[in-house]
Design brief:
Blueprint: E1 2-10, H1 17-30, E2 34-44, H2 50-53, E3 60-65, H3 71-81, E4 86-90, H4 101-109, E5 114-118, E6 125-128, H5 132-149, E7 160-164, H6 165-173, H7 182-192, E8 197-201, E9 203-205, H8 214-233
Parallel strand pairs: 1-2, 1-4, 2-3, 5-8, 6-9
Antiparallel strand pairs: 4-7, 5-7
Helix pairs in contact: 5-8, 6-7
Length: about 240
């Protein structure tokens, strides 16, 4: 049986947070292998009515950032406040359906501390594709990640990742990048600390309404890749104390 904390970072999500939570709770309440669970919505300084429309639920906790920190900052807050032994973070648009958890969890049971969903593996099931310019970025960025960070993964940016709680908290305590390249830093730190990482093909459905600005954020993410290397040279990703 699984005990799990699920984190949803949210920024200006008044139009889709309610159906997302309804779908997620329906999944959790009917899942025969889930014992205890909590859902943490981290509102990252939304300027719309996200906070007002979130329904109450006995297993739901809402954490508010007064000032926008970035997706990585919201996920970090959720991870450091999670109470169960497994932690999943997922996007608020359900681009990766919650049912895909069943593909990731067996790897945790096999001893992996971090398991990431991937859109770029041969068995990945892309139901709705991204626009062509985003497809191009989705192929170019992983190449830059492998070149500049040494990480071997085909898709660092899919917003559906599962980890054991203790390793997850060790990783996110060291996180310095709070916006869209935080996934790369998270995986770089995990590898630096010696955790076992698996990449799993999943079903993925492109959703409109992304807050990622293609040109602006692509440049920022490139700069962050260099920042990860600089941080490593400066010893900011200290090894675990055994």
């Amino acid at each position: 049986m699984m005990d799990i904390s699920i984190i949803i970072p949210a920024y200006n999500e008044e139009k889709r947070i309610v159906p997302t939570l309804n779908a997620l709770f329906s999944f959790l309440e009917h899942h025969q292998s889930i014992n205890k669970y909590e859902v943490l919505v981290v509102d990252d300084g939304s300027k719309d009515k996200t906070l007002q429309v979130i329904p109450s639920h006995q297993h739901l906790k809402v954490i508010q950032h007064q000032v926008n920190q970035g997706k990585g900052g919201a996920v970090r807050t959720g991870v450091l406040n999670a109470k169960y032994e497994n932690i999943l973070f997922m996007d608020s648009d359900l681009a990766t359906p919650p049912e895909e958890l069943d593909k990731l969890y067996p790897l945790v049971q096999q001893g992996y501390e971090v398991v990431i969903a991937s859109r770029n593996l041969p068995n990945s099931n892309i139901i709705t594709k991204q626009p062509r310019y985003r497809q191009l970025a989705g192929k170019t960025f992983p190449l830059l990640v492998r070149l500049l960070s040494g990480l071997p993964y085909r898709d660092t940016q899919c917003g559906f990742k599962l980890m054991k709680a203790a390793p997850g908290k060790e990783i996110f305590k060291r996180l310095t990048i709070l916006r869209f390249a935080f996934d790369v830093e998270m995986l770089f730190i995990a590898k630096k600390l010696g955790y076992k990482i698996a990449e799993v093909p999943v079903t993925w459905i492109d959703q409109s309404g992304s807050t990622v600005h293609f040109f602006r954020d692509s440049w920022r993410m490139l700069k962050d890749l260099f920042k990860i290397r600089i941080n490593d040279w400066k010893g900011k990703y200290a090894e675990r104390k055994i």
